[in-house]
Amino acid sequence: MQESRKIIDNSSDNCYHSIQKEVICMLIEYRVKNFMSYKDEVVLSMVADKNRELSETNVFTHGKLSLLKTAAIFGANASGKSNLIESMNYLCRLMHPSSSKKDEFAEPPVFKLDDVSRNQPVEFELSFFLGEVRHRYGLTIDRKGIVSEWLYFVPKRQEACYFVRERNELTQIGTYFEDKKALDYIRPDSYRPFIYTLGQDSVKQFGWAKDIIRYLRIQIKSSNIPDVIFRRMVEEELLEQSEQSVVTKSAVLSILRDADIGISDLSVEKETKSSEEQEMARQFTEFLQQQGVSGDIQTDSYETFMHHMKYDAARKEMGEEKFPIRYESRGTIKLYALQYPILNVLKRGGVLLVDEIESSLHPLLCERIIALFNNTATNPHHAQLIFTTHNTLLMHPRILRRDQIFFTEKNKYGVSSLYSLYDIAIDVRNNFNYLNNYLAGRFGAIPYLGEFSLNFKEDEVAGIEEQTE
Questions:
Q1: H or E segment to which residue 123 belongs
Q2: Between helices 330-348 and 227-239, what is the axis angle to 10°?
Q3: Where is the ATPase AAA-type core domain (predicted)?
Q4: Burial, 200: exposed, middle or buried (Cβ in 10 Å; 0-12, 13-18, 19+)?
Q5: Structural domain boundaries of the chain?
Q6: Predicted TM-score of the model (pTM)
Q7: 234 with 252: CB under 8 angstroms?
């Protein structure tokens, strides 16, 4: 991956020194190789095609690049959809303090179905914007730790190197590296990304490294965290409203009411936790940190109540009745919990990764969630949504452009591939039915199912014969 093509400048003349703490961060491209079922390198590109026939509302322009706001990944069961999301989560977890433990690298999730790949490193590379500056960061790991790591950026018109490491040695240091003397006491560690070391609070010289760590650890968010944890985070923000809060009651209620689930209001109540619950809170906090999620589970217990209107025999309103959220449907609880990561990235920018977005949610509700990201009014900070799904109803030109639709497919050797609908050489017109053609197998990435024939009579006869022997 390190041999990737040079990046042409799509930014202004700003460089790292001008990056502020709160900047717009956008994913351009993600590459991964030898991770789980991805034996060969695959590329998830968020660069939009320039075809004018495609909807412009689903993209935003940054410099000379047009980037996709959302990307949907379809495919058969066990084709590699979740593995792609997990690979991004894995890379982000390496930026967390807990990743320093050797056991994190003891068994890297390599492709294990051939004798060569199982002994090769896992490779990751991200291209992204931080503010106006384009970056390319890569990392390869094996059982012994970090094999190589590199960071390039575009300060003006040509890509420039910040650093390259091979194992524990810095093999290249760019001319933009402000304080080379600091490297006399800051050295790469076998089990720690060098960008993480440079971004620590104790290292004052490298503010740009903190911005990159913040992007990888905080602004790439995964929804693959138990709903109960996101629920707690929603409850804490609703109860402890401050200027920093991204979850507000008005925003949460707006989504819940628009979802047509019969909720008129909500309230959150607090009570002191027992010692056992406080220990559980400590464990939750530790889990959050391991997943790269900021924040603590406090020593108080929270309970959300959903309010529903009551009616008399004449169907006139009689006020409200409140129910603990645990009595609500699984879909309602899921939607409530999802509001933390959704509102967070919409208000602060970043990338939200969702595996199986349709889980417990109606297709029309999923469509509205996607629309929150595709709509400039609700997504002013250029947040991006990457999700996997089996919900083929979302495969509609009203919802997604062709270059926003990706497929995963696994061959008979267990190797997953990733490709876009836009890459398929077919005559696709505006009235082309994506769904019917996908289910007909025209795009691949569907299961080829057997007959599922079961002969219970033969089983019964065999059982009787066994009993008589």
A1: strand 122-130
A2: 60
A3: 72-395
A4: middle
A5: 16-38+80-222, 226-344
A6: 0.86
A7: yes
